[in-house]
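Note to self: the last two entries modelled the partners one at a time, which told us nothing about the interface. This time every component goes in together.
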Amino acid sequence: DQQVKQNSPSLSVQEGRISILNCDYTNSMFDYFLWYKKYPAEGPTFLISISSIKDKNEDGRFTVFLNKSAKHLSLHIVPSQPGDSAVYFCAASGGNFNKFYFGSGTKLNVKP
Amino acid sequence: DTAVSQTPKYLVTQMGNDKSIKCEQNLGHDTMYWYKQDSKKFLKIMFSYNNKELIINETVPNRFSPKSPDKAHLNLHINSLELGDSAVYFCASSQEGLAGGEQYFGPGTRLTVT
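The predicted structure of the combined assembly is written out below.
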């Protein structure tokens, strides 16, 4: 029973265009969300986070949107670059910052 | 200078053996974790230690035993290895109260049980 789902296993985007990665969750107690980026043979690295008191958080080319009523968050990358090609995981926590639930990841391929 | 390191990176062993994976962090964090990435690619938390005390212990077979000799180290010992234990195991650390507790991951240990 997965509480965090990333239903698109892969996404291919042209360089310079927007990449939109989606994540859905089922637990209404989740109030903190993170995105991680993972290159092959490396561990995930933190990218951006959002608290449930906000609906948007921006950091450079990366923006995360949160729709609490739909239990949905998305990561926008604009403009996409070939170096962004990686697996992106979303993770959610219900206030216990020691315990995060991760999705299965979306593999992004940005074509030059 | 590696922040979270794991050894070994690859581990191939036979069913029934006992093996250990070591993890060290030099970030001064007070909390460490073990995750298992299964065949479906989900990252699932197994254990979490805060200042050497076990604080999260998910439904994991008791063949898995974490040990934290100090807050910079969290090792994972697995007894009587089974085929289903084959996975990538990630160690991570975080600092409680620091900007929402984002975790820093090691590079992973790919365990293959034959």
